[in-house]
Amino acid sequence: MSALPIIGVWLGALALNTWLSRFGTRVTRLAVALIFGATILILWEMIVRIYAVPPVILPAPSQIGASFAANTAILWTDFVQTIIKGALTGWLIGAAAAIATAIAIDRSPFLQRGLLPIGNFVAALPIVGIAPILVMWFGFDWQSKAAVVVVMVFFPILVNMVAGLAATDPMQRDLMATWAAPYGASLWKLRLPTAMPFLFNGLKITTTLALIGAIVAEFFGSPTRGMGFRISTAVGRLDLPLVWAEILVAAVAGSLFYGIVALIEKKVTFWHPSQRPQRG
């Protein structure tokens, strides 16, 4: 079959986006992104139809959309099981534990020498190795997936938080000491505000790690619901449109998760240079 229609669509979209990008407004930037995404979907659909690609190899976007519409109840149940119960709960617990541990390390150099090497060791453990162990410890429900997420997100947040607490200027710390400020006041008024950009870097990085950890952990034991469970069973039935529908849900959830954290960061660290609008 001829590839001319595919090339024509690509060149047309490229020419349109090249023309729009010259204006540089917020509307045109949004339009460029939407046109690019729509072009990818159209080309995907055309390639599958023109070259008769079997659905078990690569389903068309229309087939994925039809599977999504036909399985909304299943997808919602899997979303709640994996994202809300497993990923989000584990992320919140891991973040809280990492922040508390970072404050303890900042307070005690002994803990810094003792806990950071252990955290580095735990961070290096492969998820495929620890997931079966945690499933055996915490059971086949969402609790074991949350435990996997805690292990995955703890160290990145800890490292960023420790670096942020140590990023205060020595003169600022000396000034707080001159005022005889206790550690709690110094922590609340100086160290925590300084650490916020570092902390949010760790939080944003771990939003995707949390989703990956929860989904992968479900491959090693899960009740009859969850994204990882559904993907593994759908692959066994060669139901690739449902697999891609689950991937779509995970991608949208991950993007929203990251976006919400980035929005909170913008509100909390409005004073930081990275949040100021770029000029010129």
So how many helices? 11
Q: In the CATH scheme, what's the topology name of the largest domain? A: MetI-like fold
CATH class of the largest domain: Mainly Alpha
Which parts are unreliable, with pLDDT below 50 for 5 consecutive residues or more? none
Distance between the termini: 49 Å
Report the CATH superfamily of the largest domain. Answer: MetI-like
Largest sheet: none
Overall geometry: flat
- Number of strand elements: 0
Q: What is the oligomeric state here?
A: single chain
Structural class designation:
mainly alpha
CATH architecture of the largest domain: Orthogonal Bundle
Subcellular location: Cell membrane
Domain ABC transmembrane type-1: 98-269
Protein name: ABC transporter permease
Membrane topology: Multi-pass membrane protein
What does this protein look like?
The chain has 280 residues and is mainly α. The chain folds into two domains: 4-53; 67-275, Orthogonal Bundle (MetI-like fold). Helices cover 79% and strands 0% of the residues. It has eleven helices and no strands. The chain has helices at 4-20, 26-50, 61-70, 72-107, 109-123, 127-138, 142-165, 170-178, 183-217, 227-236, 240-268. The longest helix has 36 residues, at 72-107. 28% of the residues are buried. The mean pLDDT is 85. It is found in: Cell membrane.
